[in-house]
Sequence to fold (222 residues):
Amino acid sequence: MKQIIALLTALYTALAGASAADLGAAFDIIRKGKRIGFHAVNVEDTADGGTRVETRIEMQVKFGPVPVFRYQHVSTETWRDGRLQTVESRTDNNGKEEALNVRREGDSLIIDGTRYRGPGPGDAVPSSYWNKAIVSTRTLLDTQNGRLIDVTVEDLGQTPSPTGAPAEQHRLTGTVDLNLWYQGEHWVGADFVARGQALTYRLIDIGRQAQLFDRLNMTAGR
Fold:
């Protein structure tokens, strides 16, 4: 474990100051000590000077051999000059289909989601966690359904991340209770409670991820 922590710390340092395309990451999702899925983020610079972000989440919980909960989420964000331009997402939340489409109009976001339709603040930050701007915002945009979430952020300084490597911890509270860890601009861990269950995101890969989703080759509940 000490060797793993040392390697991760060295990797964080090497990636400091990297471009947006180096901010991709992949995490195992842990529940009660067992892996139930993954969360992967692929970040790419685009030819027109923007940034494209793809997120994929899969979870499956079983009771013995029988699946009792499934979750799949895919989303795409586009950014330009540090401002969110669009979001598109589709979610299968244990059989409940949810969707979101967002576009920018001037200083506002126009939101068309399962839980909310209407205007939103232009500085709202998507709940995809990869962007460290999330720890400076007062409004989260739920990328599953368009809900706008008021949050308060507390900076807790350097603490052990879920891998054990030191990172900056930030706690977001309000209608959420979420801990996020960053090393520089890189998202390296999370924990929160969902449906009454404590979930931990443990980093398994970080950096430039041109083929991240193909290389993961994972299925939830492995």
Remarks:
- The chain has one domain: 2-216.
- Residues 2-216 form one domain.
- The chain is about 10% helix and 60% strand.
